Each structure stands twice: as C-alpha cells, then as structure tokens.
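In response to reviewer comment 3 from the previous cycle, which asked for concrete evidence that the modeling workflow produces usable outputs, we include below a single protein chain processed end to end. The sequence was submitted unchanged, and the resulting structure tokens are shown without manual editing.
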Amino acid sequence: MKLRTVSAIVLAAGLTVGASGCSLIAPVATSIPYAPSDGIDVTVGGADVRNMMLIADESGENFNVVFTGVNTGSEDIELTVNMEHGGSGFASAEFTLEPGTTLFGDPEGEMEPTLVPLDDVQPGETVAAFFQVAGEDEVEHNIPVLDGTLQEYRDFVIDGSGSADATEGDSASEGVTGVDPESEGEADSETGSGNATGTGSGTAAAD
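The workflow returned the following structure tokens.
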C-alpha cells in the first residue's frame, strides 16, 4: 500500500513538472499577433492596416476594399495594394491614410468606397496582395474574400447602381463608385485597362 501511494505521488509530481515545463516552452497565446475578425492585419512603414477584407458586390466581379487604416505619424501616407487575379493579372488600389484612424469601404462613411475588378475570384478564397509605402519594404499577405452572406457584412455590399446593398432598405451615400463589367469591357478594347476611382479614398485599376 505504501509503495502504491509513493508511486502515485511520484507520478503526480512528474505530471506537475511536465505540465510546468510545457508552459515554460510553449508560446503564450495572448502574445501572438492575430486579427480578431475575418480580415487581416498588416503593418508597412508607418501605416497599420487593420481587418482588411474584400467584399464582393452583387455582380460578384468587383470587390469593395474594406479596412481600417491607422496612421501614427503627422503626415499623410500613400498606401498601394497590388492584388493578383486571373492567374497573371494585377489590380492596383491606392489609399491616402491621413493622420489618425480612417475607415475605408463603408458606403455610409466619409471616404468613398473603392471597388476593385478581379477575375476568377470567389467568396471564401484569398487573394495574394502586395502592400507598398514609399521608402519601405514591400509586404505580402493574402486578403480574404467575403460576400453579404453574414449580416455584419451586408452594409458593405455594393449593388449594380453603385450603392450599398438595397436589401438593407436604406440608400447609401451618393458618389460610391461601382464598376460596370460591360462598360469596362468596352473601355478595355480601346485602352487595355479598366479603372475604378474612389474620390478621397483611393484609386483602383486592373491590368
């Protein structure tokens, strides 16, 4: 009986030491950076991109670039995001991050949403993107693609008229840029490229 008791105590002590050792070796979960939502977080230069995602419009061919930009400096930062699509093409979107915090992609916000035309991209996938700020090293990250399936993202879905999804019942602010695939195709035949411009928020172009 004493032997069994000692063995049990030794075993318990061993388990305690083993568990303690694991806690010393394993990284603390709270110290690992992560985006607490469906988007991604990227830092390039003095620009912090938080919770970036691409939300498909009603056509499924153009994507609203939604994120919060944080500029900790005192001057504007020009952020360029180059996104791969169609196997070999790139779509480029440019954003001006003013000092402080700015929300991009909200039809009801101060900044006009920027739609990016992307070929062969479906909700649930990710798009390889390259983040650039002048004078800084380029940062590569994959941006998740979503649609209006989830309630929290429906306000960011742009309909064919260039407004927020009409299923919400409220019209969006004027001036939201929408991309008409047919008109873009006609423009492409002459210029070889399509463009979607957002006033104040940035410019998106596909090659």
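Residues 1-13, 29-34, 165-201 have pLDDT under 50 and may be disordered. We consider this sufficient to address the reviewer's concern, and the full set will be provided in the supplementary archive.
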